[in-house]
């Protein structure tokens, strides 16, 4: 798992909106809030992503973009994003390569899922904040993430 201060592993993945997103496309322009979550349209994940949706303008004012990642496919991402009007993309991670690169893939149960985790990557591609939940029922609030972004931007 990459640590704070490490270069963030790059990626190029398709999202629910049909576009391909790569970490490198934001270099020099935006901070990236990379949000790993266990599953689309589940209670805690929905509450977490709706909290970020409701603070979308605050994130944008800090030159930040949010990218959501789970082990769900594009069909599930599209339904989830449309149902809750998420203004940020949900990336499909075929083969769970991004989850593996960030060390957040959990292999318990019937199917592998992403552990709930947030990485904030600065405009130079360096990880400046990392939080991986010990229990998937907990989540980072937008207030905490916005405070971390303000500190990074200072």
Automatic annotation (TrEMBL):
Enzyme nomenclature, EC number: 1.11.1.24
Subunit structure: Monomer.
Xref: CDD domains: PRX_BCP
Recorded coiled-coil stretches: none
InterPro entries: AhpC/TSA, Peroxiredoxin_AhpC-typ, Peroxiredoxin_BCP/PrxQ, Thioredoxin-like_sf, Thioredoxin_domain
Disulfide bond keyword on record: yes
Keywords: Antioxidant, Disulfide bond, Oxidoreductase, Peroxidase, Redox-active center
Top enzyme category: oxidoreductase
Segments passing through the bilayer: none
Organism for this UniProt entry: Chloracidobacterium thermophilum (strain B)
One GO cellular component term noted in the UniProt record for this chain: cytoplasm
GO molecular function annotations of the record: thioredoxin peroxidase activity
Disulfide bond among keywords: yes
Active site residues per record: 45
Family statement: Belongs to the peroxiredoxin family. BCP/PrxQ subfamily.
Protein name: thioredoxin-dependent peroxiredoxin
